[in-house]
Amino acid sequence: MILAIDIGNTSIHVGLFDRGRLKRQLILPTTLARTPGRLKRSFLRLGQIRQKEAIICSVVPRATAGVVKALRAMGCPRVRVVGRHLKTPLKNRYKYPRQVGQDRLVGAYAAWKTYKRDCIVADFGTAITIDIVTKAGEYLGGVIAPGLAISLEALASRTALLPKVKLKEPPELMGRDTANSIRSGILYGCAALCDGLVTQLKRRYAPKAVVVATGGASRLITKHARTIDHLKPHLVLEGLRLLSSLK
Q: Which residue is catalytic, options 6, 103, 123, 195?
């Protein structure tokens, strides 16, 4: 059994794999890593993990320490952190390779291993990242934009009259009240951003690339973005499972 843990800026995504299949998962707030004792109790929902290997991908170094501490306290026999104990086996063509988030590399690796061709990975998390990995296993780079939740928070905090609203599907494209006008702008705007950027990336760098969507908001965006070929909400967890077989 493999315990795959993706530590993001907002949430910790945990997946329990048994014989290569995702059997159970948890989504926990990243702030929970500040209290390893509470985090340990949350992990217990997955059952005993004394005989399970854990592999971690993180973009929040402080949270990584709390997660590792909780796993050690539970008797997890082997804990590995991507970027520290093992590297994603892609040729990193970023100008400054260390600047690439490990989640971006792991997602690109999972797409590359799954489709065995040029891939564009659109990850709709706290930030939106759209990255290219080639059939030859080269991570070329990508683009970064604010995520949906960040955009909602910015509108509420930087304006006098716009409220903070919960993101959900608006009834139609044109908003007929302020809350749904915001939802429509954020959702359809993000889908248009995805389509526009993917179209340009394909034209300039990877014309035959398959486009894979992942991340917390990917199900919502995929309904409206025309350029997405495959929806893989747990792509990073799958990438961690694949990496677990490496020495």
A: 103
